[in-house]
Design a protein that fits this description.
By secondary structure, this protein is α/β, with parallel strands linked by helices. It has 9 helices and 9 strands. Strand 2, helix 3 and strand 3 form a beta-alpha-beta unit.
Length: 237
């Protein structure tokens, strides 16, 4: 009997949580969205990680500038958001940036999203932000998921001081030169790397950075998430 009562109480509590979350989201969507550029963090894998505020901004924005509109349509469709999308990525940024600034000057709201995580982390968005700020336009961040921070905080490595170095050069020579520059940094080093280059990059790290500890974080927040820890030479295999 006690187990049944506990289950009933849990169901009631969950129902209240869902109802309250729905009320908060409805209230956020009902509020007018001020003109400006909104930097909206989106999930890095698990769609449930999106925030209520992010959903409200995406639902109300006049335009969403996305790194890959095909990818972003899946996210928006999942949450029933019918929004106008335009591509904004490294190959069209110089052409599209003035158009987005013109929309902002005209009093529109533009949401900037990347394929996953927080915009401006290893993408061309910072130039758009700088141009908007120089023009006296409003820019605000809607914080949320970040692959770099998720990897760092689950790594077990020091988090008080860290240096995010993005992607290393694809070729070994420039990559080793970059690692030489970074090896004396008094901080935990955080990198992005593609699966095809991971083994070679780890080998260069082991050679250039020495027998220090490292962590490989893959598929974070997804079904097959894995975090592997060990010395760099061990991780390089």
């Amino acid at each position: 009997m006690q187990d049944e009562k506990d289950e009933e109480r849990t169901a009631v509590d969950m129902g209240r949580t869902v109802a309250r979350a729905s009320e908060v989201l409805s209230d956020l969507i009902a509020r007018p969205l001020a003109p400006g550029l909104y930097l909206v963090a989106t999930p890095i894998g698990n769609l449930a990680d999106i925030s209520l505020r992010a959903l409200a901004v995406l639902a109300r924005a006049d335009l969403i500038a996305a790194e890959d509109t095909r990818h972003s349509k899946k996210l928006l469709s999942h949450f029933g958001i019918a929004a106008k999308l335009t591509p904004y990525h490294e190959h069209n940024a110089e052409r599209e940036r003035p158009r987005l600034i013109a929309r902002l000057r005209a009093g529109q709201s533009v949401a900037l999203i990347s394929d996953a995580g927080t915009p401006l982390i290893s993408d061309p968005g910072y130039k758009l932000v700088r141009t908007a700020l120089d023009a006296g336009l409003m820019v605000t961040s809607i914080p949320g998921p970040s692959a770099a921070l998720a990897a760092l905080t689950s790594s077990g490595m020091p988090t008080d001081t860290f240096l995010f170095a993005g992607f290393l050069p694809p070729k070994s020579g420039p990559r080793r030169a970059r690692l030489e520059e970074l090896k004396t940094a008094p901080a935990t080093l955080v990198f992005f790397e593609s699966a095809p280059r991971l083994a070679k990059s780890l080998a260069d790290m082991a050679d250039m950075l020495g027998p220090r500890e490292g962590t490989i974080a893959k598929e974070l927040t997804k079904l097959h998430e894995s975090v592997t820890r060990g010395r760099l030479d061990q991780l390089a295999g």
